[in-house]
Amino acid sequence: MALLTRAHLSRNSRSLDRTISRRDILTRCSMGFPMLGLSALMASEGRGSMRTGRKERSPLTAREPDFPAKVKSVILCHMSGGFSHVDSFDPKPRLDAEAGQPLPMKVERTQFNQNGNIFPSPWKFKHYGESGIPVSDLFPHIGSCADDLTVIRSMTATFNEHAQANFFLHSGRPFSGFPSMGAWTTYGLGSENQNLPGFVVLGGGGIPLGGRNMFGSGFLPAVHQGSIIHPGLAEPMNNIRPKETDSLQRKRLAFVEGIDRTFLDTTGHPQVESAIRNYETAYRMQAAVPELVDLSSETTATRKLYGTDSEVPEKAAYAMQCLLARRLVERGVRFVETTIVPDPEQGQSGNPWDQHWELRKGHASNAFKVDQPIAGLIKDLKARGLLDQTLVVFAGEFGRTPFTQGKDGRDHNPWGFSLWLAGGGLRSGTIYGATDEYGYHAIEGRLTFYDLHATILHLLGLDHEKLTYRFGGRDFRLTDVHGNVIQGVLS
Known about the structure:
The protein is of the alpha/beta class. The chain has a single domain (about 60-240, about 290-490), classed as Alkaline Phosphatase, subunit A (3-Layer(aba) Sandwich). Helix content is about 30%, strand content about 15%. The chain has helices spanning about 20-30, 30-45, 45-50, 95, 140-145, 160-170, 180-190, 245-265, 270-295, 300-305, 315-330, 360-385, 450-460, and strands spanning about 5-10, 15-20, 75-80, 115-120, 125-130, 135, 150-155, 200, 225-230, 335-340, 390-395, 400, 405, 410-415, 415-425, 430, 435, 440-445, 470, 475. The strands form 7 sheets. It has an 8-stranded mixed β-sheet with strand order 9-8-10-3-11-15-7-16, sandwiched between helices. Strands 1-2 form a two-stranded antiparallel sheet. Strand 5 and strand 6 form a beta hairpin.
């Protein structure tokens, strides 16, 4: 149906009746609707500036924390697949005493529900350092750093499947579409280095089950998502080496910037200015990333400390990741995550610690690859005065059962497991929380990943209850409506 309106012609002061169809209205107003949508979208993406009451020229501009921070950067050593706490940092003598007997308590349903009898650890434990923290023979190098560790033995997880649990560890949600810890960190604090991404994932290992969205920015601006750098490749990032001359590239970028500037004049929104600055950052990364992965300036002693000279390719590759993690935080990058390099014989690229069978073989192989590199990272950070301003997190998505699955494996255990922290603001050389005598359930100081997230943000100087983002009509945060800072681990 047509709409009848009266159009007034100012030129000759005459009036006439015209018939204007809906199509005419939509055609003439077509640019208005996208602009309304763009305006709303940009308003929702302005949260990073709103937190401090200032308008930033770039989403990654370094910002002041809510209160004095203990650390400036985080390194997450993600042990994907779920390493066994009763074989690493939580010794249970009762497993030895009752080996081969049924577990004398209710057995929760496991991933495969092929539950056997009590399985003692194949590895012996030793007490290390002045703190006397027990660490198994799987991790002798990390054990030598015991006085720098804060071991948590009472972590729990809500989910018992790898992908869901991995997402939960990273984002506090069991599925994709939500920002990871690294994205929330750069959203809250920006970055101290405008030539590199604020959140870097070091590739070379398998992508954990759940995929790359685990490192995503979700509904936060895309600039906060994790950028994957592959240190072992000739081109460590996609398109980092230009395929055109510098002069031609500058001309092309100048042309793009001119279009963006025109758009900026139309919208007047600082987010457009941020997009222009992101192009500039990408240009500068062409020099910064190759310099980052060039280890020629590192001494032979430093490389040996990490184990980059190992004859085992997977260990050497992970050692390079740990060395690059130090170089990244040294350059002001906020959040770094390493990915464990799987053993080709295991065939578990996304979850190498997932030993449902052959626990001895699989755990020994994985520990050998990461033990020296991670210990080297801690010692190197400490020697350079960087450990006090860096938080190192060693964690899997859950633990493993104290009883067998099948003949010689362990199933998933989210009811009580271990992880450890090292760095500034922590009570080092301590143990927090406890599981029962079998290492099955957390019984003292029970924690969730929400508590871990709240504590990480707290050490960075961020209030987890105030770091929010408006999306879909509500304010979201990393800890949802949960989480408490773990006061017992703070110095």
